[in-house]
Write a sequence for this structure.
RNA sequence: GCCGGGGUAGCUCAGCGGUAGAGCAAACGGCUCAUAAUCGUUAGGUCGCGGGUUCGAACCCCGCCUCCGGCACCA
């Protein structure tokens, strides 16, 4: 029985291009997971979009003399292109500035407010003297009242490590324009998290399948829950859906409150765009569905505590809950099933930093190297369980000595031999014990590799797949069909048939990780159709006339299945070419030079 | 400061209570179909340090050293 799987992917923030650390954390792992479940025959809905509200975008806009929307437009395009080029197979990659997203966000806010889960309280806030906008604590600096450090931030002193309140700073000033901030009392709306503390505690405590650090970190976090402000004094954001704020342009919903709602709103948008407006409920109001969230470790509490609290509070009410009929009626919106959080990638031993040149942007990377090469390295050497370091030396080595040498070479030697000597999938004679043993081991991989993928153990899954590929190289070296063919063409045909059967299965194991090369291999083997096909951009126009671009794809037409394929004897091969490019050792020096030599020190 | 995570073969990492593992690098040998790729064999570690629990500890507990994150109106 196919399952409904929601793959909810962190929303990249649209204030600049994204670097490979970002896609290592949420993009590649989530796509591997989604592609695997599609092959498995499950109903996958993979959603995300660019996160376009909040202070950093308004600051970027001010610097360039543009409207926030213009910044968001620019980076929505850049980021969308990056994800497309990496082959991330979203069902819907949209943005938070759509009418639909505003409507869903406002419905959730309004419903939580009416149910008493949102409180109104006065709070002391810091404002920019020049623009009147909120100044987040981290944008205020001054002299630390504890240690006297002159450049302490409003939230914390980097010298003595103490947590601070911006009103305590001596000589406070805005990091944006250098002016002293103005402090004044302002009304804010607070999500009443303590009301949910007990339910959250019970729920999180029984999530044995979460990664241990996610679970323990979250349990620790909810020991001291306070109401959390979910509005900001900012003109850029989703309007507060209450009559007294309808005409005001100075207070909006906090970006994090609306960003997580994107998982739901993007699902609703997906359903509307394909003309089946209730289809999202199969994932959200279906107790059998499972929701997987992918993000970096800095986002954990938003997904394990705050978003679940929003969902618990909303339950099956509001406009979207209340319009459910039939099997969906009164089924509460489903909570996360698993929170797959990654650690951080560093770059040549340092944190990514665009200002210091310690960075490689996705579009820059893909202009010189293949997406599959990046996907391979980010998977097998990615920050799955601990911070890991990306180095160019390691990238070149993994590409050349592992991807090209083990898998690329196996495919190439098998295909070129068979293409040259037979032209079609050769007819085997009786299989030897060695032949059947190899086939059993390779085709037996669908179970264990699949289990590793289901458990989000991507490193282990690709390592096991590489081990299986190496077994086939070993088999060929031992059987030496290039020698056998001179004396026994039928036996040579059998050996090559066995090798190609293995390659055909390995092709499926590699498809979630390396979709582009797996599709090419699929075609070289003489098959038609897509096991990993093209993605597509579509334009949608909403009622206000505003148009936005959505990254999607026609995944239902893809034909791959997570099971040993039936390799048809006699099927004509297409002329093979190497799947991967071997990289010259000097790209290491070139790339380090491009980074301005920062890696040396 | 508080909370959390890490320190395992030259390198990158897996293992997380039951005789120390993988890949790469190194040495030697085989093959030469294949992107000079591959295959086999060998070598290599008092598992950060010191205590403790246990029949038995990389694995659990305590202390220390060291590195790295998070600390909620930053996303």
């Amino acid at each position: 029985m196919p399952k409904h799987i929601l793959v909810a992917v962190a929303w990249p923030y649209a204030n600049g291009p994204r670097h490979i650390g970002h896609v290592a954390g949420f993009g590649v792992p989530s796509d591997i997971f989604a592609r695997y479940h599609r092959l498995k025959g499950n109903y996958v809905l993979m959603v995300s979009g660019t996160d376009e509200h909040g202070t950093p975008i308004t600051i970027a806009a001010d610097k360039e003399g543009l409207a926030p929307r213009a910044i968001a437009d620019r980076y929505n395009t850049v980021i969308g292109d990056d994800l497309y080029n990496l082959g991330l197979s979203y069902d819907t990659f949209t943005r938070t500035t759509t009418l639909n997203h505003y409507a869903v966000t406002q419905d959730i806010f309004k419903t939580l407010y009416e149910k008493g889960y949102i409180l109104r309280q006065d709070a002391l806030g810091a404002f920019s003297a020049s623009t009147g906008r909120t100044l987040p604590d981290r944008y205020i600096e001054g002299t630390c009242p504890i240690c006297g450090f002159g450049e302490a931030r409003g939230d914390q002193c980097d010298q003595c490590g103490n947590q601070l309140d911006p009103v305590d700073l001596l000589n406070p000033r805005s990091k944006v324009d250098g002016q002293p901030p103005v402090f004044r009392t302002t009304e804010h709306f607070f999500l009443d998290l303590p009301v949910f503390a007990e339910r959250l505690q019970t729920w999180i405590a029984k999530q044995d399948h979460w990664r241990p650090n996610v679970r323990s970190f979250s349990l620790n976090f909810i020991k001291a829950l306070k109401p959390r402000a979910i509005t900001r004094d900012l003109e850029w954001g989703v309007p507060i859906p209450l009559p007294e704020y309808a005409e005001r342009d100075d207070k909006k919903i906090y970006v994090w409150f609306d960003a997580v709602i994107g998982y739901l709103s993007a699902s609703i948008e997906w359903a509307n765009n394909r003309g089946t407006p209730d289809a999202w409920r199969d994932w959200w109001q279906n107790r059998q569905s499972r929701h997987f969230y992918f993000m970096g470790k800095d986002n954990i509490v938003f997904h394990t505590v705050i978003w679940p609290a929003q969902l618990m509070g909303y339950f099956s009410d509001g406009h979207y809950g209340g319009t459910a009929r039939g099997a969906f009626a009164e089924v509460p919106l489903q909570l996360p099933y698993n929170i797959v959080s990654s650690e951080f990638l560093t770059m040549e031993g340092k944190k990514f930093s665009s200002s210091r040149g310690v960075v490689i942007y996705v579009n820059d990377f893909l202009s010189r190297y293949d997406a599959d090469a990046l996907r391979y390295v980010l998977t097998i050497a990615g920050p799955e369980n601990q911070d890991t370091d990306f180095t160019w030396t390691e990238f070149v080595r993994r590409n050349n000595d592992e991807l090209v040498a083990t898998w690329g070479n196996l495919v190439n030697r098998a295909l070129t031999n068979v293409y040259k000597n037979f032209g079609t999938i050769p007819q085997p004679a009786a299989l030897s014990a060695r032949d059947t043993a190899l086939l059993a081991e390779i085709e037996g991989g669908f179970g264990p590799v699949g289990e590793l993928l289901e458990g989000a153990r991507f490193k282990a899954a690709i390592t096991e797949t590489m081990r299986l590929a190496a077994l086939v190289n070993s088999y060929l070296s031992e059987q030496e069909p290039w020698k056998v063919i001179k004396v026994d063409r039928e036996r040579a045909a059998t050996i090559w048939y066995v090798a190609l059967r293995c390659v055909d299965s390995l092709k499926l194991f590699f498809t979630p990780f390396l979709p582009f090369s797996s599709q090419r291999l699929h075609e070289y083997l003489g098959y038609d159709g897509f096991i990993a096909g093209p993605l597509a951009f579509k334009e949608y126009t909403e009622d206000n006339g505003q148009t936005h671009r959505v990254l999607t794809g026609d995944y239902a037409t893809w034909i791959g299945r997570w099971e040993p394929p039936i390799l048809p004897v006699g099927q004509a091969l297409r002329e093979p070419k190497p799947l991967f490019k071997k990289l010259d050792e000097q790209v290491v020096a070139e790339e380090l030079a491009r980074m301005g030599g920062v890696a040396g020190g």
